[in-house]
Amino acid sequence: IYTYLPLGLRVIKKIENIIREEMNRAGAQELLMPILSPAELWKETGRWDFYGKELLRCQDRHDRNFCFGPTHEEVITDLFRREIRSYRQLPLNFYQIQTKFRDEIRPRFGLMRGREFIMKDAYSFDRDEESARASYQKMYDAYQRIFIRCGLNFRPVEADNGLIGGSMSHEFMVLADTGEETILYEEQGTYAANVEQAEVLPPTESSTEHLLPLEKIDTPGMKTIKDVCKFLQVESHQLVKTLLYQTSVKEIIAVLIRGDHEANEIKINRLLNTTALTLADTETVARVTSAPVGFAGPVGLKEVRILADQAVQAMNNFVVGGNAKGTHLQNVNWDRDFKVETFADLRQAQAGDPSPLTKKPLSAARGIEVGHVFLLGTKYSEAMEATFLDEQGKETLAIMGCYGIGVGRTAAASIEQNHDAKGMIWPPSIAPFHVHLLPVTTSEKVLDTSKKLYQALTEAGIEVLWDDREERAGVKFNDADLIGIPYHLTIGDKGLKNSIVEIKHRRTGEVVKIKPGQILRYLEEQLSSQ
How far is CA 485 from CA 372, 407, 438, 502, 528, in A? Predict the structure, then answer.
């Protein structure tokens, strides 16, 4: 939980202004909803219990339950059902810029993942699917303009809907080596997706190797893929690992994944239509397999549903755990040795996998999520009976979308993408000031020139931070580099003898020597080209 200091707050306000301009341009209307909302609204949608400990709850003096809004789907849907009556009032799109609170399990990386944060959230209401998709596209396009104006290098990527829900969503990812997320994308194409959402195509070829007899092999102490491969002198792609999961109703699910791949729990949840899947604990594994963790396998499993990634379907004569301590099975084949209920895309995509669109290999990059758009459908309007009368006078559920931008996170992402060893390098559109005025002495001529330049630039609408501290020039220069304002204007006695001041471009380090009377025009040209 942070206090925003003056320079940081100026950045925040500039990002907010860009967001407001583009949201208004896209036809959204600004409102402001309460931070606290009653539990009854959240219970209508089931999220009072489903949201978990991230939802900060409290009680008033009458012991009534409330929560601090981490998002406002329930509140805006309640507003809609109380105020909107007819299809003639649609489409609608409302947005707010407001402080949110989520009791994150691992708050970290400063503004990247804090408990209290500023977010722009918007909500659209439409009469039918076609209109809802049009509203979604307007927001998608508005987000593109917002992040371009913020000077960010970003990509919109297909994403999972998570706790918000809905049928379609895209994340807007700022590319940065320090990003929490991995995205996969086509170098020369349009496809891009979060690694957890990226579709993996089924194998184009299956093994034609002759089926060999099943063998039981002693593998004492060999619990990891690496250990087993080394012991049996096989490659990891010849192994199949068996992951045991437990559902909310205590059902045990076995998921088979090729040894060199990673399971994607979001895809598994989606296949099972649940969000409560957890890895089975050691006691459950021992009870189901009669073996400790590391030796589970599909052969002989009883009363366990077996799902397998589609890559396993192309394999034969593979290695699995033997469901006994220190034991593995070799030359295992599905259908002959065990039955698979369903083959599906259940693994994490990775660099080198073919693109679902062009079949060309995907590249990987790290990214920071700064925005997310969702097509919600009727999830919330159905739960809360948010309806309107259509043209025939029939009660019809509103089709909704929701759209979020992390304002502070956008500022932090900009820093991660725009910095060097000396400090930050702000894009001009969101920099706290355009110009950093740096008089290096306190002589009358230097101070007089500084004052005149400050007044002229300010009157022309150029924002100037005047460093009038009684500090050494080196201290001022180091602080200026750290703060990262785009243009540093240095005024000293030596330069003024020749009627010269220096303008340093913070991003490139280029220094331009220029007469004081030419500075305004020069800076106006520079800023207008950004």
Answer: 29, 19, 12, 15, 16
- Alpha-carbon distance 280 to 252, whole Å? 8
Query: Which 3 state secondary structure label does DSSP give 234?
Result: coil
* 387 touches 397 (CB < 8 A): yes
Side chain identity at residue 111, one-letter code: L
Q: Cα–Cα distance between 455 and 228 in angstroms, integer?
A: 74
Angle of helix 6-25 relative to helix 129-149, nearest 10 degrees?
A: 140
Q: Any bridge partners for residue 490, and if so which?
A: 438, 502
Handedness of CA 112, 118, 124, 125 (dihedral sign): positive
Taking only the tens place, the pLDDT of each residue in 427-468 is 999 999 999 999 999 999 999 999 999 999 999 999 999 999
> If you average pLDDT over residues 57-80, what whole number do you get?
96
pLDDT of residue 166: 52
Q: Residue 432 burial by CB count (10 A; 0-12/13-18/19+): exposed, middle or buried?
A: buried
Pairing of strands 252-258, 363-377: unpaired
- Residue 525: how many CB atoms within 10 A of its CB? 9
Count each helix (H run) and each strand (E run) in the chain, helices first: 15, 29
Q: Which residue has the tokens 């649609």?
A: 90
322: which 2 tokens? 């033997």
DSSP letter for 516, please.
G
Closest to 81 in 3D by CA, of 167, 89, 163, 164: 89
209 — alpha (psi -120 to 50), left (phi > 0) or beta?
A: beta
Question: What six digits make up the tokens of 427?
Answer: 């894009």
Cα–Cα distance, 181 to 172 (Å, whole number):
11
Q: What pTM was computed for the model?
A: 0.84
Q: What is the C-alpha separation between 125 and 479, in angstroms, rounded?
A: 48
Residues 477-494: what's their mean pLDDT? Answer: 96
Write the pLDDT tens digit of every residue in 504-515. 999 999 999 999
**How long a stretch of residues is the chain?**
530
Strands (E), 32-142: 36-38, 57-59, 65-68, 92-101, 116-126
Interhelix angle 407-417/6-25, rounded to 10 degrees, is: 110
Calpha distance 22→44 (Å, rounded): 33
CA distances to 147, 438, 454, 501, 502 from 478, rounded to whole Å, are 29, 11, 21, 19, 16
Pair of tokens at residue 280: 């089975």
Other residues' Cβ atoms within 10 Å of the Cβ of residue 377? 19
Statement: residue 165 has pLDDT above 60: no
